[in-house]
Structure formats: structure tokens, C-alpha cells
Amino acid sequence: MSSQFLTRFAIDPVIHITPLELFKINGIAITNSMLYGVICAILTVTILIITARRMTLRPKGGLIQIVELGTDFITNLLKSALDSEEKAVKYAPYFVSIFFFILFSNWLGLLPGVGEAFRIHEAPLARPFTADLNGTLAAATVTWLLVQYFAIKESGVLNHLKHYFNGSMKNPITLLLGIFEMFSDTTRIASLALRLFLNVAIGEIIIAVFSALGGLAAPITALPFTILELLVGALQAYIFVMLSIMYLAVAVKHADHGEHESDHLTVKELVEAEVGGKSTN
Amino acid sequence: MFTFAEALNMSVLAKGIMMGFGMLGPAIGIGLIGSSFMNAVGRNPEASKYLGQILVIIAIVELMALLVFASVFIIK
């Protein structure tokens, strides 16, 4: 009886996988995700500039501390991946800004009113930028191109091409594997883009489905999934940045061969530590 | 006279089979990652600092499950 009362108000969930066109400027269609992406980008740049202006030794205010926490986190990731503080500070600006942009896009996409609430000509006014494959594909392509640029700048064109080929170049298998490696490098664009897009878009779909299933009780049924999406949004921003940092680290580290001795040393130390730990147990 | 396929509503069946079997692999994979992480932490508590890497690897495995979920919408 009570379930009937609740489901009486249930409607079919409205799900859009693709962004919809809002209006045209000089023949270029502006979609709802583009509009919201621009809003998110302006917000990210504004917040980061305001924080940078107010940078002091002892940060005051909640917002500045949160931004500093994120910046410090990404810089530490870069430092541990690249084994150099100088390089970490050098590459931090791009990774920090893409991290905050993806984070804001994911989180602002969960606000009430973003989605089906407001419409122009059947098209929702706002749509999270990362729930659009075009947007994430653009972000992944820019990231990949920048990683290639950074790696070439760090080690030179020839050395960068050489890191795809492991072993003697006279061996035909090395050549073949190297070319395969080059092609599989470009698939990272697709995997980065698809991971971010599918996580956010499927989160939107799940929230839509559960609020439709809930009927009158939609706020209660959709709330756990909205909270889950907060976690997923932060996690996906972290994973996007972490994976691109790892790609950069792989491309840069192969360049300098002088580090192999120190690598052996750390492995030896690790083995000794392991053996020592076992004997104490 | 109607055929067996008409009575069965194949698209719903296809969606169910796709979700079930498609989610099976990533579920096993994430379970294996989690179990080996907990094993490693149990043997060596200092290994808990690798939680970030674990989340990245889970995201890589999770992509397969997400692809399955997205493909469900293709079936009409």
C-alpha cells in the first residue's frame, strides 16, 4: 500500500548520453556541456588566481588552505614519480590546474539544477563537462600531447623515440615491438577519456534511475548515490592526474640511463630490509 | 503462431546476460587486487602507503565494467 503511494509519482528517467545543442554562434553549435565547461574553467582559473594572489607563509581562510592542500598533494605526487623536486615544481602548474578543473567539473555537475531541471528547446541548460565524451577526449588529448612535449623537451627527440625500443636495433623483433609500443601509447588518450567520461556519465545515469525509482522519496533514494558520486568525482580527478604523471615519469625516466646503479642499490636495500624484517618476525 | 524468441523478449535477456557476465570479470579482478593488497599489508604494514597505486589499478580494471554498463544502452 505504502509502496504504491510512493511509486505513483514515479516517472521514467530521462537519460542523455550525448550533449544537446543550445544555440549557435557563427554557425558553431554551442552544446550544454560546452557552456558548463566554460563556466567551470572560468571558476577554476578565478579561484586559482585569487589563491595565488593571497599566497602567504601562513595561509588564512578555508578556501586558500583547500587549494594549497590540493596543490601540495599533486606536487608531492610529481616529486615521488619524477624523483626530483625541481622537475616537480616545473611541471606542477599544468597538472594542478587540470586536477582542479576536473574536480570542479565533477562536483559542480552534482549540484541541483544541473541536468534536466532547466531546459531550452527540450535540451537541459547545463550538463557536467566531464559527462561529455568530447570534453574528456579533448582533455586527454591535450594531456597526452603535453606529456609528449615535456618528454621531448627533457630528453631530446632521438632519445624520446629510442625509449620505445628496448634492446638492439638490429633485432627485427625490437623494431616491431617498438612500433607496437608507439601505437599502444596513443591508445592512452582513449583510455583516459573513456574512464573519466564513463564514470561521470554512469554516475549521472544511476542518480537519474534511482531518483525516478524513488518517486516521492527521491531525495532519500538518490542521496547515497550522490554522496558516492562525490567520492568518485574526487577519485577520478586524482586518477586522471596520477595516470598522466605516470606516463610522464615513464617517458622522462627512460631517457637518463645513469640512474641504473642507484636503482640496483635501492633493490638491494629493499631485499636486505625484507630479510631483516622476516628474521625479526 | 508466435516464435519462441518473440515470447521471450530477447533484448531484456541480452541485457541481463551482458550485465551479469560482463561484470563478472572486473568483480573478480577487483576482488583479487583487494585481497592481495590486504595480504601485503598484513605481512608488511608499511605497504599500506601504496593505497594510491591500488586505487589507480582498480580504476584500470573498473574501466572494463564501465564499458559493459555503457554497452547496455546499445541493445534496443
List the topology elements.
The complex is a heterodimer of chains A (281) and B (76).
Chain A: H1 2-7, E1 21-25, E2 28-31, H2 32-53, H3 62-82, H4 85-108, E3 119-120, E4 123-124, H5 133-155, H6 157-162, H7 172-214, H8 218-253, H9 260-280
Antiparallel strand pairs in A: 1-2, 3-4
Helix pairs in contact in A: 2-4, 3-4, 3-8, 4-8, 5-7, 5-8, 7-8
Chain B: H1 4-8, H2 10-43, H3 51-71
Helix pairs in contact in B: 2-3
Put the structure in a nutshell:
With 281 residues, chain A is mostly helical. Chain A is built from 9 helices and 4 strands. Chain A has helices at 2-7, 32-53, 62-82, 85-108, 133-155, 157-162, 172-214, 218-253, 260-280; strands spanning 21-25, 28-31, 119-120, 123-124.
Defining traits:
heterodimer, A: 281 residues, mainly alpha, two-stranded antiparallel sheet, two-stranded antiparallel ribbon, 9 helices, 72% helix, globular, B: 76 residues, 3 helices, elongated
Provide structural commentary.
The complex is a heterodimer of chains A (281) and B (76). By secondary structure, chain A is mainly alpha-helical. Chain A has one domain. Chain A contains nine helices and four strands, in the order αββαααββααααα. In chain A, the strands form two sheets. In chain A, strands 1-2 form a two-stranded antiparallel ribbon. In chain A, β1 and β2 (28-31) form a beta hairpin. The longest helix of chain A is centred in the C-terminal third of the chain and has 43 residues, at 172-214. The relative contact order of chain A is 0.13. Chain B has a domain at 25-76. Chain B is 79% helix and 0% strand. Chain B is built from three helices and no strands. In chain B, α2 (10-43) packs antiparallel against α3. The longest helix of chain B has 34 residues, at 10-43. Chains A and B meet through α7 and α8 of A and α3 of B.
Overall outline of chain A: globular
Radius of gyration of chain B over all CA atoms, rounded: 19 Å
Number of self-contained structural domains of chain A: 1
**Helix and strand succession of chain B?**
HHH
Distance between the termini of chain B: 24 Å
Average per-residue pLDDT of chain A, rounded, comes to 81
Helices and strands of chain A: which structural class?
A: mainly alpha
Amount of beta strand of chain B: under 5%
Written as H for each helix and E for each strand, in order along the chain, the element string of chain A is HEEHHHEEHHHHH
Low-confidence stretches of chain B: none
The strand count of chain B comes to: 0
User: For the largest interface in this structure, which chains are involved and how many residues does each contribute?
Assistant: A-B, 18 and 13 residues
Q: What is the 3D shape of chain B? A: elongated
Q: Approximately what portion of the residues of chain A adopt beta-strand conformation?
A: under 5%
How confident is the prediction overall: mean pLDDT of chain B?
A: 86
Helix tally of chain A equals 9
**From the alpha-carbon coordinates, what is the Rg of chain A to the nearest angstrom?**
24 Å
Alpha carbon gap, first and last residue of chain A: 62 Å
Q: Based on helices, strands and strand pairing, what is the structural class of chain B?
A: mainly alpha
